[in-house]
Amino acid sequence: xxxxxxxxxxNICLPIVLPIILAIxxxxxxxxxxxxxxxxxxxxxxxxxxxxxxxxxxxxxxxxITNQIARESINLICLVPPxxxxxxxxxxxxxxxxxxxxxxxxxxxxxxxPRLIKSFKNSRKNIAKISVGQRAVKQPQxxxxxxxxxxxxxxxxxxxxxxxMVEVVxxxxxxxxxxxxxxxxxxxRQLTEELKKLNQWIKSTLSTIPDKNRKLLTTHRAxxxxxxxxxxxxxxxxxxxSNEDKLTSKKAKSLAEYIKTTQAxxxxxxxxxxxxxxxxxxxxxxxxxxxRLLYIDGLGEPGSDGETYQKMMDANTRSIxxxxxxxxxxxxxxx
Length: 335
Hints:
The chain has helices at 20-25, 60-70, 93-101, 114-119, 132-136, 159-176, 181-206, 224-230, 249-262, 275-285, 309-323, and strands at 35-36, 54-57, 75-78, 104-107, 128-131, 142-145, 148-151, 215-218, 233-237, 266-268, 288-289. It is α/β, with parallel strands linked by helices.
């Protein structure tokens, strides 16, 4: 993944970053509302109805979409918990057990969760294993990485792609539980209408950004979908310095020069960034780091401003709009 170093945000204390960052990030990781198969959470403690089909879903985005369509008609098991990166996620023993017992597996695809995809080989051969992302968007954005052209998997940062994902999930749930198909179709129509309104709201909200500020500089390439969908001038991502405890003076200089060339007024960091590396460079270049961090790989924890797909897109849009001098009015989420 093209990002800056992971770090413990609870230890961040930087003069350039507003204290609000600590409040936003926090250090208390609460248990999600859905069933996650973490080692510390036993299968016995999960709310399992043996009379319902078990649907195993890999990512938080897919988990939320599936939940909004199926509601209480399935046993929904979500593997990657909020705050974890699917590309780096290692399946637990609980995950493997859930996969083997699944009646349907929904995963994103495009190599977004490689270790989980590999583990599917050990599941029952007669169950459906559906790559929702690949079925929804057959021609994703292409990016170069290590000299190779790869598919950029973060398709949901364009709400129109999320709507296509909803359609795929609805179809698969209807095949699994035909008696609930009418209910799924109804929930899908409601969800789709809300997402269409969300898509339009993002466009109108971003239109309040002054023309001179419509430049997006991020720490992750996933936002390529967002800028292409909503008409921002994409200044790219900061060069990859992952897996390093500190920057050499040469790399720090190169990074500072890159930031200057973008002429972007603000850097938008994601939630896996080491701000202790980035902040001094941003200060040197007189470019601010926006204190609220973007949701990139998935949703936030329950109770956060990114706990559902709709809220996550709202939160990211708010950060971008306020960071670039626009006017934010909250999206009207359905309860």
